[in-house]
Amino acid sequence: MELLWGSLLLVAACVPAAQGWPEDHVKDADLDMPQPLHLVEEGNLKVLTAAGLTQMLNQTRFLMVLFHNPSSKQSRKLAKELGKAVEIVGKNKNGVGFGRVDITVEKELCKEFDIEKAPELKLFFEGNRTEPINCEGVVEAAALVVWLRRQISQKAFLFTDTEQVAEFVKTRPLVIIGFFQDLEEEAAELFFDVIKDFPELTFGVMSISNAFGRFHVILDSVLVFSKGNIVNRQELINDSTNKNVLNQVIKPHLTGFVIEYNTENKGLIYELQVMNHMLLFASKRARSFAMIMQHYKLAVKEFQNKVCEGTILLWGSWMGSRDL
Ligand SMILES: *[C@@H]1O[C@H](CO)[C@@H](O)[C@H](O)[C@H]1NC(C)=O
Ligand SMILES: *[C@@H]1O[C@H](CO)[C@@H](O)[C@H](O)[C@H]1NC(C)=O
Ligand SMILES: *[C@@H]1O[C@H](CO)[C@@H](O)[C@H](O)[C@H]1NC(C)=O
After folding, report:
1. In this structure, what are the phi and psi dihedrals at residue 94, rounded to the nearest 5 degrees?
2. 290 alpha carbon, distance to own chain's centre
3. 85, 162, 218, 285: which could form a disulfide with 214 (CB 3.0–4.6 Å)?
4. 154 Cβ below 6 A of ligand 3
5. Looking at ligand 1, which residue's alpha carbon is closest to its atom 11?
6. d(CA 178, CA 208)
7. By C-alpha distance, which of 304, 310, 312, 62 is closest to 195?
8. Which protein residue has the closest C-alpha to ligand 1 atom 2?
9. Contact 190, 246 (CB under 8 A)
10. Average pLDDT over the chain, rounded to an integer
């Protein structure tokens, strides 16, 4: 508990006193919040019960779940490959999660998802449990990653009507939409290719001819909407620089998340030119870890676009021999 408040204090330290720290608000939210479950991880996959699956669905935009039977050799092999796929995608990458369900134990889940044989691999999108996407015939780690990235890219929302866009962007904190002359040409293909690495963000595409001049888009462009307002627009008019432009438009929006500070991500700090970082050290193996992260993320929400502009909240995992 001490550590928990320590982390919130750490965040609070950057708020000028006059600004008013929304402390009461955070505490109220805290009281209402159910305690998160501590999910055990084996071979990079969270071991999921019915409650664990519900929790993960709530927290993860893309959730890959392996329904497996521990006594089947094929299941064990796929679990191992999926574990390797996690390493390739990046452990604790925001927006994507990996779990497994033991079909010999979780009978209710088998019934709900109509699991008759193991292994079965399913991808859930935005917490929707009614129609997960089946991943069939893919058995090798690198191929699983290719499959997953393609799904992420295909989940860009395709708009055909500007009213639809206006409604959609109002309901989401952040949406990045590519407008293209031709959705099958080079610039659009590049857009789909780039966004597959950003499962945490919401993307859409629209053909310029369908926009009828709304949003003032004439040339291939990418527009960023925040709560319904256009906050950035960039034209994609030079094949040799489009990729850079897209990355420059997209990456700054990763700062709204808590990012694990690890060898893979540490470069991001410099890339985003973030001046202030706050680093929380926490042991992933501690039972209180899920709760600490829940509070830390809550703190991010409170500060986003308010006080610490350009601040990135990070967490480092501490894999010492002793748990906290
Ligand atoms: C997750 O749970 C919280 C609180 O229990 C709820 O407010 C939120 O809408 C849920 N999010 C999703 C994506 O289901
Ligand atoms: C879940 O997905 C199905 C199929 O795509 C859709 O019909 C349904 O409305 C979705 N449910 C929610 C709550 O979004
Ligand atoms: C495209 O960008 C490259 C690299 O910056 C530049 O050399 C080239 O002149 C640009 N082309 C056009 C048509 O602007």
Report:
1. -65, 145
2. 16
3. 162
4. no
5. 58
6. 9
7. 62
8. 58
9. yes
10. 83
Which of 33, 54, 58, 172 is the best mutation target for the ligand 1 pocket, counting ligand atoms within 8 Å of the beta carbon and taking the most? Answer: 58
Write down all domains in the chain, each with its CATH number in brackets. Answer: 2-17+257-317 (3.40.30.10), 41-152 (3.40.30.10), 157-244 (3.40.30.10)
Report which bound ligand comes closest to the CA of 242: 3
Q: Which of 90, 95, 2 is nearest to 282 (CA)?
A: 2
pTM beyond 0.85: the answer is no
124-165 tens-digit pLDDT? 999 999 999 999 999 999 999 999 999 999 999 999 999 999
Which amino acid belongs to residue 216? H
Question: In terms of pLDDT, which residue wins out, 314 or 90?
Answer: 90
Nearest of 279, 282, 278, 280 to residue 318 by alpha carbon: 282
Residues with CB under 6 A from ligand 2: 128, 130-131
In sign, the C-alpha dihedral spanning 285, 290, 292, 297 is positive
The Cα 148–Cα 64 span in angstroms is 9
Q: What is the pLDDT of residues 164-217, one digit of tens each?
A: 999 999 999 999 999 999 999 999 999 999 999 999 999 999 999 999 888 999
287 φ, ψ (degrees, to nearest 5): -65, -30
Whole-angstrom Cα distance, residue 243 to residue 265?
20
Question: Is residue 6 lining ligand 1, measured as CB closer than 6 Å?
Answer: no
How does DSSP classify residue 185?
S
pLDDT band at 17 (very low <50, low <70, confident <90, very high): very low
Best residue for ligand 2 mutational test, from 112, 128, 155 (most atoms within 8 Å of Cβ) = 128
* Integer-rounded Cα radius of gyration of the chain: 21
Amino acid in position 288: S
Residue range 85-108, pLDDT digits in tens: 999 998 888 899 999 999 999 999
Check residue 79 and give its pLDDT. 97
The residue type at 137? G
Return all residues near 204 (Cβ < 8 A) that are at least 6 apart: 156, 157, 158, 159, 165, 168, 175, 176, 177, 178
